[in-house]
Design brief:
The protein is an alpha/beta fold and 550 residues long. It folds into 3 domains: 198 residues, P-loop containing nucleotide triphosphate hydrolases (Rossmann fold, 3-Layer(aba) Sandwich), CATH 3.40.50; 73 residues, no CATH class; 191 residues, Rossmann fold (3-Layer(aba) Sandwich). The chain is 36% helix and 24% strand. The protein is built from 20 helices and 20 strands. Strand 9 and strand 10 form a beta hairpin. Helix 5 crosses helix 7, helix 14 packs across helix 15 and helix 15 packs across helix 16. The longest helix is centred in the middle third of the chain and has 18 residues.
């Protein structure tokens, strides 16, 4: 059978033609009809560039195809070279014959249009439906992707939905026209483990209905080992290995692949030693509550949350999407005003401090946000972004000193020094997250609030960042409130774990106790949903297998 997609010696470069920087060099692979092929590799290896090139969207990111072919068969009687196809034909094919689920659903959806309008637009453009028919079909699609209250969701805007809901919208939008090829670029990166399992099961269900082939891009090798029939490994813009998942997981041919497999989280790995307890916590939260006013009455996002964080300790908050983790973090940072409770930083009550009084306190507590692209000013260079806190809090520091600090911080988070003059859109998702971590560390804070700080990073860089945080704790006594859905990372870095559900802490203990002897059924469900790196049986199906908890 002829491949659905055949990429042959694809090369892509960024920058002006006279100073072009090659990013992809001679990339070749094929995707068969109905197959699930995965592309894995470190952040910046070229995974997303490859996906955007296949969709011919790379020009909008400042890149261009400089060589090679991308032969796509939208139907059995036709084959086209996507690299040479004219733009009007491409526009007609995108969404109808091939579609893409992007890495960051919040920045991929139009913030000023309702969900219903964005879904209906696809059907009006590609299937010629009337507005009323398209809206009804959009409602049916939201129901098929198991969205609660689909009729109401049509009238809502992206910011009113959780990360898991937005990703369901993206999947529904991509599958509205039953494309032959679906490119899923990190479709579960920002999702907790239970929602991740639901999304992967949903993609499997929809694929079985439509027969769509999937090119699945991810840095999560444990997940890839359970969803893909073939794995393509990329490094520095090149394909270094391409094999069935059985052969690659059992007998990797190149050392780089073995390094990726070794870095994948495994249950029972060594966590940090118990943190020394000081005489007083650096952060104390008592009875924290946060409610939001809506047209249907107040919504209690966080209710009666209490915990202490000690010097040199990492306390992890885990729980499903929408359980109140990020709201708790933002309330602690005083980015949103708590409606109840008390927050003490370094023994000082900061619950009711005004903006001027909070300014010196913010030197002590810094935050790494969940969405790196949305939290970086696109008009500032990496140097300006990393040193912005220094410009605010240490205005007399000379530019040369700020530059030296920025270079040292980039080196610590494994970004090259020449990154200083680049802008956020010129970094990969994982590189942008490392840039956010460098910015948060610029003032040497006592407390770091990390809201999914490593969710966008590949497994090897996760190890580096987790190692960095542990090193900072040992050398500086840094304390960390670590919010994550990745229980494998939580096990590596956390001294204690607090489990949140419906805005409350339902269980809190040492990391070892939570992971080995959870007391609550909800905690046991979270741990059971974690995908494990596993070598599948020899006769693997070409479609997405069901995720087996544990």
């Amino acid at each position: 059978m002829a491949p659905l997609l055949s990429v042959e010696n694809l090369s892509v470069a960024f920058g002006r033609p006279d100073a072009a920087k090659p990013v992809l060099r001679g990339v070749s692979f094929a995707v068969q009809p109905g197959e699930v092929a995965a592309i894995v590799g470190e952040s910046g290896s070229g995974k997303s560039v490859t996906a955007l090139s296949v969709m011919r969207l790379i020009g909008r990111e400042g890149g261009r195809v400089t060589g090679g072919r991308m032969i796509f068969r939208p139907n059995d009687a036709e084959a086209v070279d996507l690299a040479a196809l004219e733009e009007p034909r491409l526009r007609a094919m995108r969404g109808r014959d091939m579609a893409m689920i992007f890495q960051e659903p919040m920045t991929s959806l139009n913030p000023i249009q309702t969900i219903g309008k964005q879904l209906a637009e696809v059907l009006v453009l590609h299937r010629g439906l009337s507005a009323a028919m398209a809206t009804e079909e959009a409602r049916r699609m939201l129901d098929r992707v198991h969205m609660t209250e689909p009729a109401r969701r049509l009238t809502q805007y992206p910011h009113e939905l959780s990360g898991g809901m937005r990703q369901r919208v993206m999947i529904g939008m991509a599958l509205l026209c039953r494309p032959r090829l679906l490119i899923a670029d990190e479709p579960t990166t920002a999702l907790d483990v239970t929602v991740q399992a639901q999304i992967v099961a949903l993609m499997r269900e929809m694929q079985q209905e439509t027969g769509t082939a999937i090119l699945f891009i991810s840095h999560d090798l444990a997940l890839v080992s359970q969803v893909a029939s073939r794995i393509i490994v990329m490094r520095q813009g090149e394909v270094v290995e391409d094999a069935s998942r059985e052969a690659l997981l059992a007998r990797p041919r190149v050392a780089y692949t073995r390094t990726l497999l070794d870095a994948a989280p495994r249950p029972g790995q060594d966590g940090p030693a118990p943190a020394p307890r000081g005489t007083a916590p650096v952060l104390s939260v008592r009875g924290l509550g946060k409610s939001f006013a809506t047209s249907r009455g107040p919504v209690h996002a966080v209710h009666d949350v209490s915990f202490d964080l000690h010097e040199g300790e990492t306390l992890a908050l885990i729980g499903e999407s929408g359980c109140g983790k990020s709201t708790t973090a933002r309330a602690v940072m005083r980015l949103i005003e708590p409606t109840a409770g008390r927050i003490e930083i370094g023994g000082r009550d900061v619950t009711r401090l005004g903006p001027r009084a909070m300014r010196p306190v913010r030197r002590e507590i810094q935050m790494v946000f969940q969405d790196p692209y949305a939290s970086l000013n696109p008009r500032l260079s990496a140097f300006e972004l990393v040193t912005e806190p220094l410009a605010i809090h240490e205005p007399r520091m000379k530019r040369e000193e700020r530059r030296a600090r920025a270079e040292a911080l980039l080196q610590r988070v494994r970004l090259p020094p020449d990154s200083l003059q680049r802008y956020p859109h010129q970094f990969s998702g994982g590189q942008r997250q490392r840039l956010c971590i460098a910015r948060a560390l610029s003032l040497n804070p006592r407390i770091l609030v990390a809201d999914e700080a490593v969710s966008a990073l590949d497994v090897s860089v996760q190890m580096q960042v987790v190692g960095l945080l542990r090193e900072l704790q040992e050398s500086l006594g840094l304390s960390c409130l670590f919010i994550s859905h990745d229980i494998g990372v939580v096990e590596r870095i956390s001294h204690r774990v607090a489990v949140m559900r419906a805005g409350r802490i339902v269980e809190m203990a040492t990391a070892r106790q939570i992971l080995e002897q959870p007391q609550q059924a909800y905690t046991r469900e979270l741990i059971a949903a974690v995908p494990r790196l596993a070598i599948p049986p020899a006769a693997a199906p070409a479609t997405l297998p069901v995720l087996t908890p544990g």
